Amino acid sequence: xxxxxxxxxxxxxxxxxxxxxxxxxxxxxxxxxxxxxxxxxxxxxxxxxxxxxxxxxxxxxxxxxxxxxxxxxxxxxxxxxxxxxxxxxxxxxxxxxxxxxxxxxxxxxxxxxxxxxxxxxxxxxxxx
Length: 128
Prior knowledge:
CATH topology of the largest domain: Arc Repressor Mutant, subunit A
Helix content: 55-70%
Radius of gyration: 18 Å
CATH architecture of the largest domain: Orthogonal Bundle
Strand content: 5-15%
Number of helices: 6
């Protein structure tokens, strides 16, 4: 069964590092996020422990070092967070979200052809 998760900004950033690398020790996650975040390695280690408590990551030992790996898929997190966004901001109306993205210019005009093709495939019963 898919587990849909709502992650905070830092949690999501840490998970992105792990999804990209497959697995990494805390120091590597820290290095990947340091320039953007400027956080101490202890902060990253604490957040990794919390993510492990939530079932989002697990670890294996390499000597005395914990090597963390994701236990949830990026697609599951995306589905959960987008679903929550649609529910909270658009009262469950996903068409309103799409309309907002188009009207606000968040969706490039060149992408509209791709969206039309996706809609056509969905109407024919194909995978997206």
